[in-house]
Design goal:
Elements: E1 29-35, E2 41-47, E3 55-64, H1 67-75, E4 96-104, E5 116-119, H2 129-132, E6 167-171, E7 175-177, H3 184-187, H4 190-202, E8 212-215, H5 219-230, E9 236-239, H6 243-252, E10 256-258, H7 265-273, E11 277-282, H8 287-296, E12 297-305, H9 317-322, E13 326-329, H10 337-346, E14 356-361, H11 365-374, E15 381-385, H12 390-397
Helix pairs in contact: 4-5, 4-10, 5-6, 7-8
The structure holds zinc ion (2 copies).
One zinc ion binds near residues 124, 125, 130 and 141.
Length: about 400
């Protein structure tokens, strides 16, 4: 399994001024999954990247698979390496990971070697208008981190090497300490909850007592239910066609669930809320759900679009305009929302572990991806662990 070292497009190799510890020796080489042609991931050896100023090296302990990983493997976007598609560039995807700090870049004193951390994805360039507003997931210099274009942008697993590897470099602003009471697997879900949080609070302005509907019980939708409930939204309503997922939504805080196979979601939401919902989070993003969102939102309410449809979607723009409804997209987890999601999870305000269904060892990444993609065995959140754990052992014993 030692193919020739691939071109390392984004990794820093300058170890001067980097602090390491004999307690956590850092090897020169690591195993990393590398994207070749679309859908083609191979396990290769790569140099361990060096952390620069304001960065740390994280030994990855667990990484969750996201629908966006599956998109990247097939379409390339939204990953962008050297200004183009991420194929055959030595790129390592994977972005929802956690681990242990193994080395500190020059001047870093915010963390210590040995700290368990989970990460947010986007560091942004720190110098554009959106980064200065805290909207670093919408950085104007997205993907500009090479050659003469180098603006220092980082989005691990998108524009820089990510977490399907033994090590990754992170900006200190993208790391959050993990309490001892939280498992590796649960810690990988903090960034997903952070994305839901960003959509509801920073971008949406949700305050306690407002009604929230979530359409689509995927990981972001289910954790949007949990975050909305923890923020005091009332009622919280989940719309989904899979009863097992709706049941998890109830455990996470949904006051009501609606199965569109059984009843009209728009009529039912109006019945439950009076004049329609204050907020609708559409995690499906198809013609049916976008129109349902428009028609179930009350006058002056807000719709958050959390899905990335690949084709144009027709919807009732007139109803949106005449009802003074606000429509906004969400990309990732800006304004440190992930840090605040961790505060909820550390206090056990909701049990994100309910969305974690499967764990596989790193060598079985391709199987893990298949479980996530085909929803094998009702998979919701599939985690790849670098350290065999009890859940993997349980599965192996079955
Ligand atoms: Zn993701
Ligand atoms: Zn920026």
């Amino acid at each position: 399994m030692t193919d020739p070292a691939p071109a390392v497009t984004t990794a820093n190799a300058d170890w001067s001024g980097v602090k390491t510890s004999p307690d956590m020796p850092v090897p020169d080489q690591m195993r990393a999954w590398v994207l070749g042609e679309p859908e083609e991931l191979t396990l290769q050896d790569k140099p361990v990247p060096a952390p620069g100023k304001a960065e740390a090296l994280v030994r990855i302990d667990a990484v969750a698979i996201c629908a966006t990983d599956l998109e990247i493997l097939t379409y390339g976007t939204p990953a962008l390496i050297e200004g183009g598609p991420p194929f055959n560039k030595g790129f390592t995807p994977g972005h929802e990971y956690m681990g242990t700090i193994a080395a500190l870049g020059p001047g870093v004193d915010e963390f210590e070697i040995g700290d368990r951390v989970t990460v947010e994805i986007h560091a942004g360039c720190g110098q554009c208008k959106r980064c200065r507003m805290g909207m670093y997931t919408s950085c104007h210099n997205y993907g500009l981190n090479y050659g003469d274009q180098d603006k220092g942008h980082r989005a691990n697993g998108f524009t820089t090497d990510g977490g399907f590897a033994e090590y990754a470099v992170n900006n200190i602003n993208t790391m959050i300490k993990v309490p001892d009471t939280m498992s590796d697997e649960e810690a990988t879900l903090v960034v997903t909850a952070g994305t839901s949080m960003y959509g509801l609070t920073e971008l949406g302005g949700l305050v306690a007592g407002e009604s929230v509907v979530v359409i689509g019980p995927g990981p972001i939708g289910l954790l949007a239910v949990a975050v909305a409930k923890a923020l005091g939204a009332s009622p919280v309503i989940l719309v989904g066609t899979r009863e097992n997922r709706n049941a998890i939504g109830k455990q996470l805080g949904a006051d009501y669930t609606i199965n569109p196979k059984d009843e009209d979601p728009v009529a039912r939401v109006k019945e439950l809320t009076g004049k329609g919902a204050d907020y609708v989070v559409d995690c499906a993003g198809n013609e049916t759900t976008v129109n349902q969102s428009v028609h179930m939102t009350n006058r002056g309410g807000r719709i958050c679009l959390a899905a990335f449809p690949k084709t144009a979607v027709a919807f009732d723009l007139g109803a949106l305009a005449v009802n003074n409804i606000y429509l906004y997209g969400i990309r990732g987890e800006g304004r440190s929302a992930t840090h605040r999601a961790m505060a909820f999870m550390a206090e056990k305000r909701f049990d994100a572990r309910l969305v974690h269904t499967h764990t596989f060892p790193m060598e079985d990444l391709n199987t893990a991806l298949r479980y996530a993609k085909d929803r094998v065995d009702d998979a919701i959140k599939v985690v790849v662990s670098m350290r065999q754990n009890s859940k993997a052992a349980e599965q192996a014993a079955e």
